């Protein structure tokens, strides 16, 4: 049959002709792309950074860089914790060995600013029980160079040296262990998720051939994104944490998109369509929805580009790349594969043995979802109120969230750098690690520095102040400057250390940062330190968060309007998606901040949540929620356009997509839980939190709240003013080609009914019960 003589629903569009004209060539190009991606992306993990939580334009970032250059001893990133082995650190043999280690360290290439308790006598460098003391230094260079230096020198210091035992810590060691731990955990997560995912896909599709297609799309997306990240490292910093998102979204979204496309193609074959028209109908319907979904997810992730922290920007780079590559593979590679496979897409039915001897299931596919939809809509006010109330209650713990910074407690408790920092936190005086550093520039005369130090030391939150003018406490000098203090003054700049009384990042320390910054002085001051970085990060996130949320909301409203032509549905989508995230945010605080389940989940709580992580989780989870929302709304819209029956359209949409969305969400949750097995707390929080959000959205929001709310809003749901209706008519997108409202009848013609029964039986045999589209729906695609 020529294309001109085909029914409208079977005509072959230009995109279908393009991607199916040379299917073997298309697959060969995809194979070459994948091979090149493997080469281009090789070694990407070694080029990724493990920091990126700070705003590079903040005052604390400026002060840190300036102090690193002028006073490297003030910014140590390498700590040697020296254990005296039952003696005291003042024992002559211990002191001699420690001084020898410090001398050896100072001679190392790329190491500067070496200081120690035995050189300065500073109480903050000696444990209260006098059993341990610190040698501190700074490894120069960027994260990559510092990590390589650490790998080179650490084995020469770690372990027994005469009477002492040395452990290696400090921020450079923490970041190095984070990077290596994440790489190991990512490999383990893939080994966990891939086989389980394959089993679930076989259960959904029945066919092993069909089940392998989504995995192929996922592999292309993951390897392609690794190559993109490798290229970006030539121009900007990229976080190692982004690889976790690459794996999760690469598998999750590829499976979502391939599920939708392969399912629709198999339905078309079950209806008796030839291969090429079946692909054409699939791309015209499911393909449009996949494209639409990809745009919404990419827009949500792109919002993170407004933040200056490269930790967040890295997830935008990885997320946008993996979404677009997954969608491209689904819309280009899959059609070519389906053309070549044809009916063989149903080959290797591994579930046939399980069905052998069992009576065929009776009833219409998706009947359970239809019954649920009718039940919810009969009691719409009750279900809407109960569901909203439940989600709000689950989110209440987030109201007491405390924000902090990422530190060594991200690592497992057995990690060496974590052990070192824990010893310092618990056994050393004066809040080591929580000190504030003040860079003074300008008129840094001795008297001016003394007056300023005395004034700062008189603040109620301050334990003491150390600087070029000596040591100060309670507004007066308690120790005269010595050689170590004199080294804090150079070239019109001075380094002043302020030790707070409280914890490193508690509210009092953050208030102290603001107080010091507001204090007048005869010279210019810039404050850095853990609390200062946290204050600047919170300010930076707070300033840009409205822009990020605004971008996500605006793009969502636009895209959902183009999909539905309604003014109310986009508003519902935004509000219901936000509600679907409440359980995730509440669980994050209850579990990871408060420490519940810390034993079973094997993590150390720091009593706060890293500041950037909720932003990341919001953008990712919101985008994934829209992914499922688009699938459901596209089918509801299609049915409403055909029949004009609002309630029947909602029931139809849930019946046709309920099983598909649940299966896709379950598979994505498995992938995210695999990521959540990481030994790094932030990665564990990301994986488990998003898994919970995805399941809540698919099973609670899509199954209960959406039909209840749409029943309450009734036909008003579809209202739009005249100009917007005309805009949607011209530019809108929808799945299927609408027939006039009311053209569909439940019985249809005899031919339709027969075709529908045959298709339903085929869908049941394929394991797609609840998601299939029967022959009675052929009007919606124009094939009848």
UniProtKB/TrEMBL annotation:
<dbReference type="InterPro" id="IPR004869">
    <property type="entry name" value="MMPL_dom"/>
</dbReference>
<protein>
    <submittedName>
        <fullName>MMPL family transporter</fullName>
    </submittedName>
</protein>
<feature type="transmembrane region" description="Helical">
    <location>
        <begin position="686"/>
        <end position="705"/>
    </location>
</feature>
<feature type="transmembrane region" description="Helical">
    <location>
        <begin position="380"/>
        <end position="399"/>
    </location>
</feature>
<feature type="transmembrane region" description="Helical">
    <location>
        <begin position="290"/>
        <end position="311"/>
    </location>
</feature>
<dbReference type="InterPro" id="IPR000731">
    <property type="entry name" value="SSD"/>
</dbReference>
<keyword id="KW-0472">Membrane</keyword>
<feature type="domain" description="SSD">
    <location>
        <begin position="215"/>
        <end position="340"/>
    </location>
</feature>
<feature type="transmembrane region" description="Helical">
    <location>
        <begin position="574"/>
        <end position="593"/>
    </location>
</feature>
<feature type="region of interest" description="Disordered">
    <location>
        <begin position="734"/>
        <end position="784"/>
    </location>
</feature>
<feature type="compositionally biased region" description="Basic and acidic residues">
    <location>
        <begin position="773"/>
        <end position="784"/>
    </location>
</feature>
<feature type="transmembrane region" description="Helical">
    <location>
        <begin position="547"/>
        <end position="569"/>
    </location>
</feature>
<feature type="transmembrane region" description="Helical">
    <location>
        <begin position="241"/>
        <end position="262"/>
    </location>
</feature>
<feature type="transmembrane region" description="Helical">
    <location>
        <begin position="192"/>
        <end position="221"/>
    </location>
</feature>
<feature type="transmembrane region" description="Helical">
    <location>
        <begin position="317"/>
        <end position="342"/>
    </location>
</feature>
<keyword id="KW-0812">Transmembrane</keyword>
<dbReference type="Pfam" id="PF03176">
    <property type="entry name" value="MMPL"/>
</dbReference>
<comment type="similarity">
    <text>Belongs to the resistance-nodulation-cell division (RND) (TC 2.A.6) family. MmpL subfamily.</text>
</comment>
<dbReference type="InterPro" id="IPR050545">
    <property type="entry name" value="Mycobact_MmpL"/>
</dbReference>
<feature type="transmembrane region" description="Helical">
    <location>
        <begin position="660"/>
        <end position="680"/>
    </location>
</feature>
<keyword id="KW-1133">Transmembrane helix</keyword>
<keyword id="KW-1003">Cell membrane</keyword>
<feature type="transmembrane region" description="Helical">
    <location>
        <begin position="25"/>
        <end position="45"/>
    </location>
</feature>
<feature type="transmembrane region" description="Helical">
    <location>
        <begin position="613"/>
        <end position="633"/>
    </location>
</feature>
């Amino acid at each position: 049959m020529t294309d001109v003589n085909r029914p409208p629903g079977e005509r072959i569009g230009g995109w279908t002709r393009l991607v199916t004209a040379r299917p073997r060539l298309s697959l060969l190009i995809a194979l070459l792309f994948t091979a090149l991606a493997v080469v281009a992306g090789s070694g990407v993990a070694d080029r990724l950074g493990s920091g990126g939580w700070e705003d590079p334009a903040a005052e604390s970032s400026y002060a840190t860089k300036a102090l690193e250059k002028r006073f490297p001893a003030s910014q140590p990133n390498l700590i040697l914790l020296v254990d005296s082995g039952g003696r005291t650190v003042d024992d002559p043999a211990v002191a001699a060995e420690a001084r020898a280690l410090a001398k050896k360290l100072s001679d190392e290439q790329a190491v500067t600013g070496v200081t120690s308790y035995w050189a300065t006598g500073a109480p903050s460098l000696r444990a209260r029980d006098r059993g341990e003391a610190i040698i501190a230094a700074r490894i120069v260079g960027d994260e990559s160079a510092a990590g390589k230096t650490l790998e080179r020198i650490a084995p020469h210091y770690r372990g027994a040296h005469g009477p002492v035992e040395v452990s290696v810590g400090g921020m450079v060691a923490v970041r190095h262990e984070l990077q290596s731990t994440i790489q190991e955990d990512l490999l383990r997560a893939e080994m966990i998720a891939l086989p389980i995912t394959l089993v679930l896909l076989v259960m959904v599709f029945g066919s092993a051939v069909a089940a392998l297609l989504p995995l192929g799309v996922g592999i292309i997306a993951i390897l392609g994104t690794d190559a993109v990240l490798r290229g970006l490292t030539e121009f900007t910093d990229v976080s190692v944490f982004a690889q976790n998102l690459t794996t999760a979204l690469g598998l999750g979204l590829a499976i979502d998109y391939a599920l939708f496309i392969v399912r629709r193609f198999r339905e078309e074959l079950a209806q008796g369509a030839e291969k090429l028209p079946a692909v054409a109908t699939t791309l015209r319907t499911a393909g449009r929805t996949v494209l639409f979904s990809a745009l919404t997810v990419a827009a949500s992730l792109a919002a993170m580009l407004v933040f200056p922290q490269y930790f967040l920007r890295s997830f935008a780079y990885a997320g946008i790349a993996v979404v677009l590559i997954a969608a491209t593979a689904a819309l280009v590679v899959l059609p070519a594969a389906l053309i070549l496979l044809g009916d063989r897409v149903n080959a290797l039915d591994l579930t046939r043995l399980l069905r052998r001897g069992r009576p065929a299931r009776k009833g219409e596919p998706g009947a359970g979802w239809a019954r649920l939809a009718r039940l919810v809509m009969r009691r719409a006010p009750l279900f809407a109120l109960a569901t909203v109330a439940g989600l709000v209650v689950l989110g209440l713990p987030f109201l007491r969230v405390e924000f902090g910074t990422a530190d060594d407690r991200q690592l497992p408790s057995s990690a060496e750098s974590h052990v070192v920092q824990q010893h310092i936190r618990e056994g050393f005086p004066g809040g080591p690690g929580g000190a504030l550093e003040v860079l003074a520039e300008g008129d840094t005369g001795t008297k001016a520095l003394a007056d300023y130090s005395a004034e700062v030391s008189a603040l109620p939150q301050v334990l003491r102040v150390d600087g070029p003018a000596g040591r100060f406490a309670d507004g007066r000098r308690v120790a005269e400057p010595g050689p170590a203090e004199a080294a804090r003054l150079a070239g019109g700049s001075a380094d002043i250390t302020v030790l707070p009384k409280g914890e490193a990042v508690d509210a009092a320390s953050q208030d102290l940062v603001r107080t010091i910054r507001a204090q007048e002085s005869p010279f210019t001051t810039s404050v850095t330190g853990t609390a200062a970085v946290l204050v600047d990060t919170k300010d930076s996130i707070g300033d840009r968060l409205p822009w990020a949320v605004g971008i996500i909301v605006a793009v969502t409203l636009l895209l959902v309007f183009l999909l539905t032509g309604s003014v109310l549905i986009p508003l519902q989508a935004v509000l219901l998606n936000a509600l679907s995230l409440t359980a995730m945010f509440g669980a994050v605080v209850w579990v990871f901040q408060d420490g519940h389940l810390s034993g079973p989940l094997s993590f150390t709580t720091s009593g706060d949540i890293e500041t950037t992580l909720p932003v990341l989780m919001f953008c990712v989870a919101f985008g994934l929620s829209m992914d499922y929302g688009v699938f459901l709304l596209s089918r509801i819209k299609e049915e409403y356009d055909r029949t004009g029956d609002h309630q029947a359209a909602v029931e139809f949409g849930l019946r046709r997509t309920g099983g598909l969305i649940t299966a896709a969400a379950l598979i994505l949750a498995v992938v995210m839980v695999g990521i959540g097995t990481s030994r790094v707390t932030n990665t564990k929080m990301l994986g488990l939190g998003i898994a919970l959000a995805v399941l809540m959205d698919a099973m609670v929001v899509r199954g209960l709240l959406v039909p209840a709310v749409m029943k309450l809003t009734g036909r008003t749901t579809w209202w739009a003013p005249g100009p917007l209706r005309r805009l949607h008519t011209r530019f809108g997108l929808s799945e299927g080609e609408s027939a006039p409202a009311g053209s569909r009848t439940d019985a249809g013609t005899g031919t339709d009914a027969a075709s529908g029964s045959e298709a339903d039986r085929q869908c049941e045999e394929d394991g797609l019960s609840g998601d299939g589209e029967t022959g009675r729906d052929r009007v919606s695609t124009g094939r009848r």
